[in-house]
Amino acid sequence: MKKLHTSLLVLGLAFLVFLIWKAGIRQLWQQLGLLGWGLIPIVIAEGVAEVFHAISWRYCFSGPHRRISLVRLVRIHFAGSAISFLTPTASLAGEVTKAALLAGNRHGPEAVSAVMIGKLSCGLAHLSFVAIGSIVLLPVLQLPPALRAPLLLGSAALAAGMVIFLFLQKRGKLASFVRWLAARNIFGKSLQGFARAMERVDETLKEFHRERPWDLARSVCWHFLGFAVGIFSTWYFLFLLGERHGFMVAARIWFLVLWFDLVTFAVPLNLGVLEGGRVVAFRAFGFGALPGLTFGIVTRLAQLFWAGFGLLNYALLIARTSAAPEERPARATGEAALPLAIEENQT
């Protein structure tokens, strides 16, 4: 797995360098200069979207975690997102971080189930948002078959995976699935300990889906709001460049951007594919590659800003945990064993 992540990271970096070389560093710098202080609303919009995503996570909680304050919830979300963004683990490290920060030394299964339900909710919202957008996109979109086919096939594969993940959660069969993988020596022997920890999580997941099915739908709706903020960012970016287009054009571009983001989620740091997807989306609707690459760079700058904010919150949360031993996340025993098992699985 590490070799795959490293290969994807190298390829993504090479692709990003190629895009910048092709567009021209001087031209890219000039276009960024045209934006000036206008970048600030785009950065703020990125933060607003993350707050919506954090609120959606609240509907995934079980047990005592449902009483967590909104401020602490948002801080944990930003901390986990920062770890996901800055580490080449396809968001796995960030989810482990959120589970550990949420768990404390008790209620580990509830914390891990909240992370798993939240991940499913975000995936369902992302896929549904793209599916709705495709109704708007496909009649007017002229993509070459070399791009259209991977987008459709990748989306179909992800949809099948999410349906299976939802089924396993509702039936409490994730531990059985992990044991099946471990029996075939997939991902190494560390999955055996992971499976034992998953048994208690399965019970929490089953209870959530049985007693609160509508909370998953509410969570998906908040994710929808988070994704929709990108339409404003796209429209405002075009406005800054002097392109007087309506929200429909911005929405179409953003739907296609999210479609690329959906099928390339496994690329570490989204390096190269984030910028490349925006180049393709802008060109598909009559804009040049330079505005698309500029929008990709602006998006990455906004994400870096909020990643820094998340790292600051992570440090403060860890410091507070260290100062209060009774709240320190237990990583080796009992209910909080699962985050450790996930973390060990990365090595």
Order of helices and strands: HHHHHHHHHHHHHH
**Number of E strands:** 0
Q: What does the average pLDDT come to?
A: 80
Structural class category: mainly alpha
Characterise this structure.
- There is one protein chain.
- Helices cover 78% and strands 0% of the residues.
- By secondary structure, it is an all-alpha fold.
- It has one domain (2-345).
- α3 (39-58) crosses α4 and α9 (191-211) packs across α14 (337-345).
- The chain is globular and about 55 Å long.
- Mean pLDDT is 80; it is low at 326-347.
Give a brief outline of the structure.
By secondary structure, the protein is an all-alpha fold. The protein has 14 helices and no strands.
What is the strand and helix layout of this fold?
Layout: H1 2-23, H2 25-35, H3 39-58, H4 70-86, H5 92-103, H6 108-137, H7 145-171, H8 174-183, H9 191-211, H10 213-240, H11 247-263, H12 273-284, H13 289-323, H14 337-345
Helix pairs in contact: 2-13, 3-4, 3-6, 3-10, 3-13, 4-5, 4-13, 5-6, 5-14, 6-7, 6-9, 6-10, 6-11, 7-11, 8-9, 9-14, 10-11, 11-12, 12-13
Core attributes:
347 residues; mainly alpha; 0% strand
